[in-house]
From TrEMBL:
Family membership noted in the UniProt record: Belongs to the SLC35F solute transporter family.
Major localisation: membrane
Organism: Urochloa decumbens
Compartment(s) where it occurs, according to its Swiss-Prot or TrEMBL record: Membrane
Residues spanning the membrane: 12-36, 42-61, 73-90, 96-115, 127-146, 158-178, 190-211, 223-247, 254-274
Annotated protein name in UniProt: Uncharacterized protein
Keyword annotations of the record: Membrane, Transmembrane, Transmembrane helix, Transport
């Protein structure tokens, strides 16, 4: 009885942490969307502040230990590089698409994670898990079809280009998630977050210097813009801080299942904080998020 109760509490803790991660994704998504709507195209600069915050908080903890890194620095560089590229592509997508499509298609990471964990970590999945993934893919295909028929190119948006950037970003996210899962299950979680922050900071600085200097010079910094960049950094910081715990307790697949509810949180933020009208497609996103909660809990019980 005690073991069963412990299992239930562990499941509820994973569920809670997963939704904290999902909510942080929604916060970052809204900040990025509003920054793009204000005409600012500086995704690498957004990432710079997020990695800077991670570095300031976690690197001193690692230095205070005065111990050698448990994983070679070049593996952390590889993880940070995939993280920067994935974040860059997804944030860039807001220049061409809308928060609903970007948040929804971001769930494509689940597909790549299942493939990678199956062939790299040897994770086994049941037939019903593959069927559930197939349903998710069908939903993503409908989202792509909807964007393909969108007339919004006249408004300066190119939804299909935004969708392509998001899907490319999900490949990087999947590589990063699986790499992080291996690291946090075998090594120190704080070291992983600290090194991803530090090397992510270095990679983003180099890429800003190479690709974003001109667009950054054109940015003005009123208080609202500073608040949006700070909001994105705070959301990303929460995401990176909590993610290792979810990966260690549940793995990459269930971690990405938890992110399926981010569309629901994004719609809630849109209503409560920005007092914006929710479109029919956003209502579908809310229903999809609620369904995903039940589907995720079902996976936890099966596991």
């Amino acid at each position: 009885m005690g073991i069963k109760r412990k299992t239930v509490w562990g499941m509820l803790l994973v569920l809670l942490l997963g939704q904290i991660v999902s909510f942080s994704v929604a916060i970052s998504s809204f900040a990025s969307s509003l920054i793009a709507n204000l005409g600012v195209d500086a995704p690498l600069t957004q990432l710079f502040f997020a990695y800077l915050l991670l570095t300031i908080v976690y690197v001193p903890i690692v230095l205070r230990r005065r111990e050698k890194l448990q994983i070679s620095w070049y593996w952390y560089l590889a993880l940070a590089f995939t993280d920067v590229q994935g974040n860059y592509l997804v944030v860039k997508a807001y220049q061409y698409s809308y928060i609903t499509s970007v948040t929804f298609l971001n769930c494509f990471t689940l597909v790549w994670v299942i493939v990678l964990t199956r062939y790299t970590l040897g994770t086994r999945y049941s037939l019903w898990q593959f069927v559930g993934t197939g349903v998710c893919v069908a939903g993503l295909a409908l989202a792509l079809l909807s964007d393909a028929n969108s007339p919004d190119e006249d408004l300066g948006k190119i939804p299909l280009l935004g969708d392509a950037l998001v899907i490319a970003g999900t490949v990087c996210y999947a590589l990063n998630n699986v790499g992080q899962e291996y690291c946090v299950k075998n090594k120190d979680r704080v070291e992983v977050v600290a090194m991803i922050g530090l090397f992510g900071l270095l990679v983003s600085v180099v890429q800003i210097f190479l690709f974003e200097r001109k667009s950054l010079e054109a940015v003005t910094w009123p208080s609202m813009m500073i608040s949006l960049f700070a909001g994105y950094a705070a959301g990303n910081f929460t995401f990176c801080s909590v993610t290792p715990f979810v990966l260690k307790m549940s793995g990459s697949t269930l971690f990405n299942l938890s992110l399926l509810t981010s569309g629901m949180w994004a719609a809630a933020i849109q209503i409560l904080f920005y007092h914006q009208q929710v479109q029919p497609t956003d209502k579908l996103d809310v229903l999809y998020g609620i369904h995903s909660c039940g589907h995720w809990v079902n996976h936890l019980l099966v596991e």
